[in-house]
Write a structure and sequence with these properties.
The chain is of the alpha/beta class. The protein folds into 3 domains: about 1-180, no CATH class; about 180-375, P-loop containing nucleotide triphosphate hydrolases (Rossmann fold), CATH 3.40.50.300; about 380-449. Helix content is about 45%, strand content about 20%. It has helices spanning about 15-30, 30-45, 65-85, 155-180, 220-230, 235-240, 260-270, 285-295, 305-310, 315-320, 330-340, 360-365, 380-390, 400-405, 415-420, 425-449; strands at about 1-5, 50-60, 60, 65, 85-90, 100, 105-110, 115-125, 145-150, 180-185, 190, 195, 205, 245-250, 275, 300-305, 345-355, 370-375. The strands form 5 sheets. A 7-stranded mixed β-sheet has the order 13-10-15-16-17-14-18, with helices on both faces. The longest helix is centred in the middle third of the chain and has 23 residues, at about 155-180. The radius of gyration is 30 Å and the shape is globular. Bound molecules: adenosine-5'-triphosphate and magnesium ion. The site of adenosine-5'-triphosphate has 14 residues, from helix 7 and helix 15. Magnesium ion binds next to helix 7. Keywords: Hydrolase, Magnesium. Belongs to the AAA ATPase family. BCS1 subfamily. Its cofactor is Mg(2+).
Length: about 450
């Protein structure tokens, strides 16, 4: 709840006298905590300058936490470390970084588009037995907290229309950035609904793959990263054009070329949660719709091996083959295209396949998946990246030979990674790799003959 207080311009003597008299009476009759609360409000009212305007942001709206309070708390935490002398620090298991909060009665100054504002955390101690408790547990609040935001009253509109929304937006971004990535899959059977749902307890996504460790062609990597950057900063574009803020990627290529690794790198780069959809656990199109609707903003929906996961190849036949009770390709396309056009924001959809040629043309049509990314066999630039990751070297006399062989045989990054993880020194690893590449080359030559 945000409430506002106008400043009184003139402290009036008689008013003060009345207050003193009331105070004496009140001391006798009113609980001390409530009195403190009233006193603090009154003194504030009389001491402020006539040009100031104050917005009070209370921690609770009825029984619920106030989102503006939470946003202010997160936003001011970062400001506090530079502008006040005492902060509170904390970190929970779900968070990647430390979080800071300002302490009670601390003031934090901020400047927004040339407007100076002041925030203050007001805490009123109360006896738990005398107030309605905000939570059931024994650590129920024993103080009433609120932030007071004070500024020149001529900036009232700007503060309401731009500054407070800005604080909320920044707090949201910080919250997203600080949350550890989670992965969910639809492998939890709901005994009441008789179907699989997203597992309630998400698993922490600890995959270390990043764009620094992913070994793909440098140009391709730059292109993908630019595409992701453009996507996340395009809120205004999507709003203006009325398009759903989502982007679809089709990753295709042989096994072991890094499709799943690229998904992990994307999730780590964007800090998005992963929703790994197993189509074999989806009963019908209706369940699919529900699963997709349940995916929150800033998530990546992954459907791996789309070609062999389910019979999605031929839409003409799908009615006869699947009837109405199964997931069909059009059901999938409608769920992805239709639903997300009206619900949610910042969704990325990734399909992977080893056989792009087996996919229904409806999936490949321009505009369906925004970007088709071909992950292929290892070239020399990708190899050098793998060597840096696995052997921590950037140069070696055997590189020339390897570069030559990589131009002659097809080998996946996964196969090279396997050679480089052998328990031996760099030279031995590279020699073993050369031998295996030469063996591949011989097999290839024999097949041609
Ligand atoms: N481009 C790559 N960069 C770094 N490591 C890679 C790359 N490709 C594969 N690897 C290594 O090989 C392993 C398997 O790769 P990954 O699972 O990403 O392949 P995939 O293309 O998804 O294969 P599949 O088609 O079988 O699902 C990874 O765990 C990683 O160690
Ligand atoms: Mg994979």
């Amino acid at each position: 709840m945000i409430s506002t207080m106008f400043d009184s311009s003139k402290p009036v003597l008689s008013a003060v006298a009345s207050i003193m008299l009331m105070q004496t009476v009140a001391n006798e009759l009113i609980p001390r905590e409530l009195l403190n609360f009233v006193q603090s409000g009154l003194s504030h009212l009389f001491c402020q300058s006539p040009t100031r305007f104050t917005v009070v942001v209370e921690e609770f709206q009825g029984m619920r936490r106030n989102h503006v309070f939470e946003a202010a708390e997160a936003y001011l935490g970062t400001k506090a470390t530079v502008s006040v002398e005492r902060v509170k620090a904390g970190k929970s298991e779900d968070h990647k970084k430390l979080e800071f909060n300002i302490d009670r009665n601390e003031e934090v100054s901020d400047v927004f588009e040339g407007i100076s504002v002041k925030w203050k955390l007001i805490c009123i101690q109360v006896d738990k037995s005398r107030i309605r408790s905000y939570s059931d547990d024994s650590s129920a609040v024993s103080e009433i907290r609120s932030y007071e935001l004070t500024f020149h009253k001529k900036h009232k509109n700007k503060i309401f229309d731009s500054y407070l929304p800005y604080v909320i937006e920044i707090a949201n971004q910080m919250k997203q950035g600080n949350m550890a990535i989670k992965i969910r899959s639809n492998n939890e059977y709901d005994d009441y609904e008789y179907k699989y749902v997203w597992n309630h307890e998400p698993v922490k996504f600890n995959h270390p793959m990043s764009f620094n460790t992913l070994a793909i062609d440098e140009g391709l990597q730059r292109d993908i990263m630019n595409d992701l950057d453009k996507f996340v900063s395009a809120r205004e574009f999507y709003r203006r054009t009325g398009k759903a803020w989502k982007r679809g990627y089709l990753l295709y290529g042989p096994p072991g070329t890094g499709k799943s690794s690229l998904i992990a790198a994307m999730a780590n780069y964007l800090n998005y949660d992963i929703y790994d959809l197993d189509l074999t656990n989806v009963e019908d199109n209706k369940s699919l719709k529900q699963l997709i609707l349940d995916i929150p903003n800033r998530s990546i929906l992954v459907i791996e091996d789309i070609d062999c996961n389910i019979n999605l190849q031929n839409r003409e036949e799908e009615k006869e083959v699947n009837g109405d009770n199964k997931v069909t390709l059009s059901g999938l396309l409608n769920a992805v295209d239709g639903l997300w056009s009206c619900c949610g924001e910042e969704h990325i959809i990734v399909f992977t396949t080893n056989h792009k040629d087996r996919l229904d043309p409806a999936l490949l049509r321009p505009g369906r998946m925004d970007k088709h990314i071909h992950l292929s066999y290892c070239n020399f630039s990708a190899f050098k990246k793998l060597v840096i990751n696995y052997l921590c070297i950037t140069e070696h006399e055997l590189f020339e030979k390897i570069e030559q062989l990589l131009g002659q045989v097809q080998v996946t990054p996964a196969e090279i990674a396997e050679e480089l993880t052998k328990d031996c020194d760099a030279t031995e690893c590279l020699q073993d790799l050369i031998e295996s590449l030469q063996a591949k080359k011989m097999i290839k030559e024999e097949m041609i003959e």
